[in-house]
Amino acid sequence: MKKGKRKLKLPLMRNAEAAKTSTLQKLRQLQRLIDPRCEEIIMNPETLYEETASQIFQLEAKVNVLKSLFTMFGV
User: Which among 30, 60, 22 has a CA at the least distance from the CA of 48?
Assistant: First the structure.
């Protein structure tokens, strides 16, 4: 039975490592979207999420301004 348990743990460990790698890749991609100057250093995830939220808020504000201008000038 111990061998069976070991066989079950190895794939779980590989899946956990693959998930961690995938998560790190996604964090790097998100960081590049937020700050393209950052190449290697990964921000603290909390800071990265705050920056992402700030960027989203700014983009929403810009869209609202453009919608208002469109309505006012009928362009």
Answer: 30
